Amino acid sequence: LGIVILSSIAAAIARNDFALAQRHVSSAGRFVVIVLAPVCVLGAMHATPIMSLLYSPAYEAGGIYLGILIGGYGLFALLDTLLHALIGADRHHLASALLLAILPVVFLSGIGLIQLWGPMGAAASLLVTLGVGAGLAAIAIYRRFRVSAVAPLTLARVTIATAVAAFASGSVIRARPKS
């Protein structure tokens, strides 16, 4: 998605079609959230069975870490998309500066959270760092394009739909008899 948004925004800006660039930013943000929110939530909910399926039941304890890492990588996809949008708008220096700005977060959260929680802290550090990065990139997107990367109504709808899917998924898993 990153390279598509980069080239689409660059082309719109080259044609002086700022409205089209805004639509590309909104569409990309909406797409990332619509696709990844349910995947991340359901993946995190079922991380332990995923670990057991992919490796063996001996690795089920790693499911808690996998659940957090799935959320982190979802934020990474959002960060990547937003940074590519900035690069497409010829704001590559800003995109680089944002990545440099999260380095202290990586360092401090890594040291602090790993000291506190060990491996759980490492996973939480990834989630925190990419959350801060995605938040900063969303602010930069709004300042450049005057449009939210994800419309509040879309975010509300995705949240409700994801919650319903998570509830249904949890209900199906609990209702299924153990074999």
Characterization of this structure:
Helix content is 84%, strand content 0%. The protein has 179 residues and is mostly helical. The longest helix is centred in the first third of the chain and has 28 residues, at 18-45.
Give the overall shape: globular
Give the N-to-C terminal Cα separation: 41 Å
The Cα radius of gyration reads 19 Å
Tell how many strands the DSSP assignment holds: 0
* Average residue pLDDT: 94
Number of helical runs? 8
H/E series = HHHHHHHH
Question: What portion of the residues fall into strands of 2 or more residues?
Answer: under 5%
Uncertain residue ranges: none
Outline the secondary-structure elements.
Blueprint: H1 2-14, H2 18-45, H3 47-54, H4 63-88, H5 92-101, H6 103-117, H7 119-145, H8 152-175
Helix pairs in contact: 1-2, 1-4, 2-4, 2-8, 3-4, 4-5, 4-7, 5-7, 6-7
Q: Outline of this structure?
A:
This protein is an all-alpha fold and 179 residues long. 84% of the residues lie in helices and 0% in strands.
Keywords, please?
single chain; mainly alpha; globular; 179 residues
